[in-house]
């Protein structure tokens, strides 16, 4: 069995049918088919006016099946009694069960000076999980390798620092006597 061979060629070219040309009717010079010349060469009759139909009784305007009333008016609204409005009052934090945060600021220069006079060697300020502040102080003692720890926990940083310094001053005062 043999495959391949010369390519197949079309035997004939397609033939297209030719239609004979039709000629348009010849118009007189200066005229185009379907267009009337201007000015009219002949007197053309004027279009007659349409007769006016006699107007009968006016039909009423109907919307949604109900005749339109021209003098329709809305009824007046019913009288309203005067309303007294109470002023809005925000509950205080105490009413909501919250304790107000103190806005007292701490003078860190004075706090460090007090701390240094007592023989302070370390200070740590940390916030606890419940939102309070813990201040831990480390103070020198009369023993070379011993230190004393003082802590205070309060709602604000200023209260905790002042509390820890007061406790440290109390301890330092008792040590001197």
Description:
This protein has a three-stranded antiparallel β-sheet. The chain has a two-stranded antiparallel ribbon with strand order 1-2. The N and C termini lie far apart (128 Å). It has a domain at 123-176. It has two helices and five strands, in the order ββαβββα. A hairpin with a 2-residue loop joins strand 1 (62-63) and strand 2. It has 177 residues and is an alpha+beta fold.
Compile the SSE list and pairings.
Layout: E1 62-63, E2 66-67, H1 108-117, E3 120-127, E4 133-140, E5 147-154, H2 157-176
Antiparallel strand pairs: 1-2, 3-4, 4-5
How much of the residues is beta strand, in percent? Answer: 15-25%
Radius of gyration: 56 Å
How many β-strand runs?
Answer: 5
Helix count from the secondary structure assignment: 2
Distance between the termini: 128 Å
Summarize the amount of helix as a percent range: 10-25%
- Low-confidence segments, ≥5 residues, pLDDT <50? none
Structural category: alpha+beta
Principal-axis shape: elongated
Order of secondary-structure elements: EEHEEEH
Reported for the largest beta sheet, the result is: 3 strands, antiparallel
Characteristics of this structure?
three-stranded antiparallel β-sheet, two-stranded antiparallel ribbon, alpha+beta, elongated, 177 residues
Short description:
This protein is an alpha+beta fold and 177 residues long. 17% of the residues lie in helices and 16% in strands. The protein has a domain of 54 residues.
């Amino acid at each position: 069995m043999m495959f391949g061979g010369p390519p197949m060629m079309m035997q004939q070219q397609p033939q297209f049918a030719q239609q004979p040309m039709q000629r348009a009717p010849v118009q007189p010079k200066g005229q185009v088919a379907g267009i009337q010349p201007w000015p009219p060469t002949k007197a053309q009759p004027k279009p007659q006016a349409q007769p006016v139909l006699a107007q009968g009784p006016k039909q009423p305007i109907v919307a949604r099946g109900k005749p339109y009333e021209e003098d329709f008016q809305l009824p007046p609204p019913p009288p309203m009694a005067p309303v007294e409005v109470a002023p809005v009052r925000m509950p205080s934090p105490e009413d909501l069960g919250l304790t107000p945060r103190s806005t007292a600021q701490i003078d860190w220069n004075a706090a460090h000076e007090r701390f240094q006079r007592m023989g302070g060697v370390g200070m740590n300020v940390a916030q606890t999980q419940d939102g309070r502040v813990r201040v831990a102080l480390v103070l020198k003692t009369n023993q070379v390798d011993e230190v004393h720890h003082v802590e205070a926990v309060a709602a604000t940083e200023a209260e905790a620092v002042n509390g820890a310094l007061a406790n440290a001053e109390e301890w330092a005062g008792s040590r001197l006597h």
